[in-house]
Amino acid sequence: MQVDLQQRLLRNPMLFQYLRENSYWYKYLHRGGDVFPLFEKEMKEHYKVRMQDKMENISQSLQMIRTFMDVIH
User: Do residues 43 and 18 touch, judged by C-beta distance below 8 A?
Assistant: First the structure.
């Protein structure tokens, strides 16, 4: 595996954890760094850290607050 890919994995614990849980990615990452963006995208989808996931969480929180406020009134 390329040194820069190793450093990126070590700097981001979520990437490293995802790689440990899905070891088939070792094979692809050893062949070259061109699949790293796909690997990173899959990790973000799995752990729900994409921007749309964050927006959905905020929306759900606001809806819960609205419901709570309706119950109080």
Answer: yes
HEC profile of 30-63: HHCHHHHHHHHHHHHHHHCCCHHHHHHHHHHHHH
pLDDT digits over 4-58, tens only? 999 999 999 999 999 999 999 999 999 988 999 999 999 999 999 998 988 998 9
d(CA 4, CA 15): 14
Please work out, in degrees rounded to the nearest 5, the angle formed at the alpha carbon of residue 26 by the alpha carbons of 24 and 4: 150
d(CA 2, CA 25): 14
